[in-house]
């Protein structure tokens, strides 16, 4: 076995021990404590006022943000010298996941503590942090992030907002319009991207009270009614030169590196949504009677509950595996070093592909879980008094922001090719969990070999023009996503099974049977599509012969899992 586990893209070429991944079963007492605190806050303070928040009561929303700050929920990523705690990414994901049960509040919180605060934490000068960071950590100030423009969404570097140095050299004068900025209605500090001299893409810290700064009306959105989304209009806004964030012309580094964490955090929020939606669906299925019996006893409903439980299990495994990978890398850094945050960003950038695939997998998983659980509700799922209706509306945009899923799919294989230009999959020896999950382990090895072969052939065929072959890149992305997701689920189940009871082991075996069946099917579709695009008959023949899953009691696994979820009326892992 290779010794490079932990490197970005390493999952494609390495056979990994289950003991080497971080899973929810590894949560420390501190993780569990802060999870409990967050859950109580959601249950006691946020869910009872959801209707008011959904109606756009932003004064109440800001009050709840400050209340969450008092509980320490905004200290997680900030350095200690500015009122933070600088905790690990696993803690950050736990809190974000729990806040998914709070409707739109979760997005507002995520925007503030993520893209609102992280640019300053990672790139701010000491003077800038002293001026703003403690106010952000306490929620005295609320943060926002203005990158997108009316004519530049995915093409962020095509921004037209300009910044011109004043004659006295003391200010930059900003002109332009930003679109879809979350928290605009009440934010105090905006990270705004503009081009100095129409050329050098640069980030600026812009205060709400700066002259010339104004805002459009609230956007009339399909969902997320309880969050604020407005245009940010800059008309000759004078920004002190001391408020340049990072270096002039280096704004792309801030924009893209912060988006890596934003994508990762969104994955955690989706896991929380999946759990919430599953619980709502299971509870309703037990309550709803048709033909004199609960619909949870019907095979059609059982299959939905089982499949969505497995999808949630895989999503959760993906998020916390990545948290462990990033935390392991960041733990090697010297916090007292002047280069700490520069090295910190390099550590996160190492996993840019994994952040992108986490975003894609989890947003699409949340979409499917919520859609299926609305279907379980039947016509009542379309009625506003049921929580699943709001979840359905709110979920849709997640496949668009933080980079559309199409853009992220194009990024994934491109980044992976840079990391593994000509690697072979590593066929390691026997692992401790092979007895339980040997077939799935072997399937993963075949999937990895197939991906590397097709990726290599695509790179060889198209060379430097591969970026223009979007259909091929999309197919490769689907393959890589399924490898990481299935492997994360298998590793998690394998690790947890060692300490589990026989009954619990049976549930782990059941959930992996379902994950393997669906993951293999999606992978084969992507691989066959890619092979056809490349006109590679050898790979097509190889897939038909070498990617078997083998016989398994799939129906029994689904019924076992569905019955367990119905009894508990919640996500059971």
UniProtKB/TrEMBL annotation:
Protein name: Acyl-CoA dehydrogenase
Domain Acyl-CoA dehydrogenase/oxidase N-terminal: 28-140
InterPro entries recorded: Acyl-CoA-dh-like_C, Acyl-CoA_Oxase/DH_mid-dom, Acyl-CoA_Oxase/DH_mid-dom_sf, AcylCo_DH-like_C, AcylCo_DH/oxidase_C, AcylCoA_DH/ox_N, AcylCoA_DH/ox_N_sf, AcylCoA_DH/oxidase_NM_dom_sf
Family: Belongs to the acyl-CoA dehydrogenase family.
Segments forming domain Acyl-CoA oxidase/dehydrogenase middle: 144-237
Assigned keywords, A-Z: FAD, Flavoprotein, Oxidoreductase
Assembly and oligomerization: Homotetramer.
Acyl-CoA dehydrogenase/oxidase C-terminal domain location: 249-412
Entry's Gene Ontology molecular function annotations: acyl-CoA dehydrogenase activity; flavin adenine dinucleotide binding
Keyword Membrane: no
Keyword Flavoprotein: yes
A Pfam entry, by short name: Acyl-CoA-dh_C
Organism from which the protein derives: Desulforhopalus singaporensis
Reaction catalyzed: a 2,3-saturated acyl-CoA + A = a 2,3-dehydroacyl-CoA + AH2
Domain of life: Bacteria
PANTHER family according to UniProt: ACYL-COA DEHYDROGENASE, ISOVALERYL-COA DEHYDROGENASE, MITOCHONDRIAL-RELATED
Ranges for domain Acyl-CoA dehydrogenase-like C-terminal: 447-508
Cofactors that this protein relies on: FAD
């Amino acid at each position: 076995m290779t010794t490079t586990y932990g490197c970005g893209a390493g999952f494609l070429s390495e056979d990994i021990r289950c003991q080497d991944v971080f899973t929810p079963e590894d949560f420390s007492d501190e993780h569990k404590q802060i999870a409990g605190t967050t859950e109580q806050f959601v249950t006691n303070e946020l869910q009872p006022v959801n209707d008011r928040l959904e109606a756009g009561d932003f004064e109440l929303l800001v009050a709840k943000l400050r209340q969450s700050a008092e509980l320490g929920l905004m200290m997680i990523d900030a350095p200690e010298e500015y009122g933070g705690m600088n905790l690990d990414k696993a803690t950050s994901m736990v809190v974000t996941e729990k806040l998914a049960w709070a409707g739109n509040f979760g997005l507002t919180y995520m925007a503030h503590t993520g893209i609102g605060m992280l640019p300053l934490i990672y790139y701010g000068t000491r003077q800038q942090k002293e001026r703003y960071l403690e106010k952000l950590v306490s929620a005295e100030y609320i943060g926002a992030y203005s990158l997108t423009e009316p004519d530049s969404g995915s093409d962020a570097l095509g921004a037209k907002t300009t910044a011109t140095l004043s004659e006295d050299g003391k200010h930059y004068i900003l002109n332009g319009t930003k679109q879809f900025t979350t928290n605009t209605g009440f934010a105090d500090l905006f990270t705004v991207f503009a081009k100095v001299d129409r050329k050098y893409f640069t980030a600026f810290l812009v205060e709400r009270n700066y002259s010339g700064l104004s805002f459009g009306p609230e956007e009339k959105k399909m969902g997320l009614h309880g969050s604020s989304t407005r245009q940010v209009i800059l008309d000759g806004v004078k920004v002190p030169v001391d408020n340049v964030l990072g270096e002039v012309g280096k704004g792309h580094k801030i924009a893209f590196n912060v988006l890596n964490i934003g994508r990762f955090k969104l994955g955690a929020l989706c896991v929380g949504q999946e759990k919430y939606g599953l619980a709502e669906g299971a509870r309703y299925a037990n309550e709803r009677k048709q033909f004199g019996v609960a619909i949870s006893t019907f095979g059609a409903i059982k299959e939905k509950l089982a499949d969505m439980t497995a999808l949630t299990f895989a999503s959760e495994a993906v998020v916390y595996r990545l948290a462990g990978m990033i935390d392991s890398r960041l733990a090697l850094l010297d916090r007292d070093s002047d280069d700490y945050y520069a090295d910190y960003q390099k550590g996160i950038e190492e996993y840019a592909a994994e952040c992108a695939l986490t975003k894609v997998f989890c947003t699409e998983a949340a979409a499917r879980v919520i859609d299926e659980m609305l279907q379980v509700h039947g016509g009542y799922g379309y009625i506003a008094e049921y929580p699943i209706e709001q979840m359905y509306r709110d979920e849709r945009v997640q496949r668009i922001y933080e980079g559309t899923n199409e853009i992220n799919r194009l990024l994934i294989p491109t980044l992976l090719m840079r990391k593994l230009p000509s690697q072979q999959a590593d066929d390691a020896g026997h692992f401790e969990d092979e007895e339980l999950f040997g077939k799935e382990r072997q399937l993963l090895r075949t999937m990895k070999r197939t991906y590397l072969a097709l990726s290599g052939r695509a790179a060889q065929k198209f060379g430097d023009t591969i970026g223009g072959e979007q259909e091929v890149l999309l197919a490769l992305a689907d393959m890589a996503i399924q490898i990481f997701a299935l492997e994360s689920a298998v590793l998690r189940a394998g690790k947890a099974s060692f300490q589990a009871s026989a009954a619990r082991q049976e549930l782990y075996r059941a959930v992996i049977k379902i994950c393997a069946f669906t993951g293999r099917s999606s992978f084969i579709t992507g691989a066959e599509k890619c092979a056809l695009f490349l006109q590679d008959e050898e790979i097509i023949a190889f897939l038909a012969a070498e990617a078997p899953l083998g016989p398994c009691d799939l129906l029994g696994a689904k019924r076992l899992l569905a019955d367990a979820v119905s009894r508990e009326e919640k996500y059971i892992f």
